[in-house]
Amino acid sequence: MISVEGHKNLKRDNETGAIINVDSTEYNRHVQNKKNRKIRQDEIDNIKNDISEIKTILMQILENKTV
Predict the structure, then answer these.
(1) Of 1, 53, 60, 66, which alpha carbon lies 20 to 30 A from 31's?
(2) Mean pLDDT in the chain?
(3) What is the pLDDT of residues 10-38, one digit of tens each?
(4) Is residue 23 within 8 Å of residue 9, measured between CB atoms?
(5) What ranges do the domains of the chain cover?
């Protein structure tokens, strides 16, 4: 691999020409951030589902009281 000028963590693959970040710390940080985003999105989805269930229950309660 050939070093990319001005970027100590970037290398160019000789076969494909692709630029690769060889900084494992930065890669691990990226992977952890991706996991954290997934966890937060799952939590948001769970809250949305809970609110929907609460709304359905409240609507059922209101319907039963008006009858």
Answers:
(1) 1
(2) 93
(3) 999 999 999 999 999 988 999 999 999 99
(4) yes
(5) 24-67
